[in-house]
Amino acid sequence: MPGFPTDIFISYCHVDNHPIDTKGTLWVENFHRDLQGLVNTCVGRNVVIWRDRRLSGATVFSDEIADRLRSTAILVTIESPGYIESEWCTREREIFVGAAAGNGGLDIDNHRRIIRAAKVPVPLPELPDVLKPTVGFPLYSIDEQSGSAIDFLFDPRPEAEKLYRRALSLLAQSIADLLKQMRDAAAPRESSAPDTRTTVYLAETTSDLERDRTAIRLELEARGCVVTPRQPLPRDFESCTAMVRKELARSDLSIHLLGSRYGLIPEGVTKSLIELQTDLAVESGHPGARRLVWIPRGLDSIEPQQRVFLERVRSDHSSASGFELLETSPAEFKTFLISMIERPAPPPPKAEEADAAEQELPHIYLVRDREDRESVAALTKFLFNQGFEVLTQADEGEEAELRQNHQENLKVADAVMIWWGHTSKVWLDYMMRDLDKARGLGRKSPFRATAVCIAAPRVPDKDEFMTHKAQVFKFLDAFAPEALNALIQRVKLPAHA
After folding, report:
1. CA 494 to chain centre
2. Which of 78, 156, 190, 299 is the most buried (most CB within 10 A)?
3. Strands 149-151 vs 140-142: parallel, antiparallel or unpaired
4. Region 435-445: what's the mean pLDDT?
């Protein structure tokens, strides 16, 4: 790194440099060796990584260490309870931070020049303030039974080594990206080309979802996204609101993870920090910004106040905000998110393509449950014979893929008809809420028509069903297509009519 004789300084507590095998291989020594090779590969050249190789930290703090810190580009800390308590490590950190003020600044392009490799988890409140906004890479797993942390190098599971290598690879890539940003910041700018990277507001969440948030942040940054906020949000209402609005305004996407806990309530307000960020996203952000809300599937042990909030998100709040709500497993949500980030934006249509699009047949999205595939066949055939392009739900595939397909159909359809047959009222309610959220998927205009078709079997819920959101047609005895004539004519009208 130009201007920095040392690219990376590893700061660690000497008690953490313990043997990891019968050969006497030491933990930090092993980490240093692996990181060296990975960063060299990511950068494309040999980088200089330095650490104090003495077997203990009991000797006098040397001038060599201080000089190294003052000439270092990036500080990598090996986070553990011992590191937090170590006066030696505190002094290393203070010298680096003090020197950074005179050699380019502590933060480069919204990224702090300190990166945490977490050997053992340390609660965020216990971290020094300068470390709280830094990027952290966990090198441990959490035992599902006990909730205890297990160092990847001592985890007996077959996949533990792969998880360790993956975490180190992400750490090395983050270091390489930061070195590049520092070089770019130091180089004279020849042009004022705009930054085309995707900026993502990844909302703060509660402790039960913090690991999921970290995993999402690492995936986003590995794909070149700018993830914000970098620092913990202020705990008073005015400062917190100002910071959230500022970060949302520059974001292309906001992601909100909602779990079983309601979360911290800032001073001066009765809403939790989690609910406050969600509400601010409704009114903030630039017009093209997308908003994702994720709730883990099968969420249980929910705090009463959080239960009320989740119900609001699922009904009134979500319909008004334009959120895309997903209730999936963590892996499925991550798959959906990666697919969305990596999918290139479609090019603007040519004039002749736009003219052809205006002449396309109207699209009706026929929403039905898998159990009703056969019973809805008569309606599908009728709509097709009326000159409509009929979109239907896919029945096979991963849940995240099925959800994405469903949302794409809602986005492009001219009208939506929901077939309520063998499935439950809960399923119908879920589909009705998706009608409300369709505008948030990027639709340019409202649906020309929406309908609910009620079919056999007859149950009390169907006899009592009423809604202002759609026309209701009852085919409890048999399908009668003539009842749909008025709706058919309305959908056939041009979009501007």
Report:
1. 38
2. 78
3. antiparallel
4. 72
